[in-house]
Amino acid sequence: MGIEIIHGIENIDIAKWTAFAEKHHYGSAFQTPLMYKVFEQTKNYEPLVFASVDSNGDLTGVISGVRICNGGGIFCRLSARVIVWGGPLVKEDDTEIVKILLKAFLEKAKKMSVYCEIRNLYSLPEYLKRVFVSVGLRYKQHLNVIVDVKEEESVLLKKMVSAKKRNIKKAKKSGLEFGEIRNESELKVGYEILNEVYKRTEVPFSDYSLFKAMYELLVPAGLCRIYKTSYNGQMTGIMAALIFNRRMYEWYVGSKREFYKLRPNDFLVWEVIKAAKEKGLEYFDFGGAGKPGKKYGVRNFKKGFGGNIEETGRYIIVNRKIPWMMGNVAIGIKKSLAGK
Question: Is the pTM here over 0.90, yes or no?
Fold first, then answer.
């Protein structure tokens, strides 16, 4: 086949990598050199990338992910996981290259994580799914909600459930305002809002350094916008959204609980959907909607905006069974004690 596998950002032509991701039909901001650099600057994050090149030195595939830990030392060893969003990207979806890249990447990930998870951003064809399974990955059902923002605003509103429209109207009437984060001081305020949301939901949250790198690297490049809602000059909500391949992807979003009566969540999402439309994008991606057949309030919230539900799925491989089982037991006990 004449394919060589290379590892490490220092060995990959950045311009070729960027162009490859931009042209690929499954391309996303997550599979770009800039996102690699964002992860590189984030505390407790360690990015890794593999690529395939042909005999002419041209890229034929790339897969980029990141090892994430909850703290250092023993906490890192017990919580380390490698996450890949939307990868690999392979020229013409060549199954042999997909298989070779996955094998090389998973071999590296095995040495540095309890488990590795690939989170699809698109519904993949069956022939690609079979390749993922053939290298030891296990498929997990996972849903997403996608809004087609090519449609007229009146059509989008018609598809929205009545409660959403009432809440948006109430938010506007109450004086909620929408805009973009303008400086790092505002970014820090927004981060604290998200931090509080994640504490309430008992989900591990990233260090502020992720958002600082996002703001300094992705926003100037046009790969990210960080939106906010405000009331009487006080920030009430924030959303960090990625932009790539004619699609806006909701990455982080949250609002202050004390302002819930003003309906900031509905208002924020609707204004961002309109912003995506105004930018000439085609889709607003809610970034996940849980597992089918399981109650999930967030999915109901997202469905209310009239988008289409898709099963994009995820793939997982467990590298260290004992830490994996310990982690699952700990999560179960924690939820039980919390009455969840």
Answer: yes
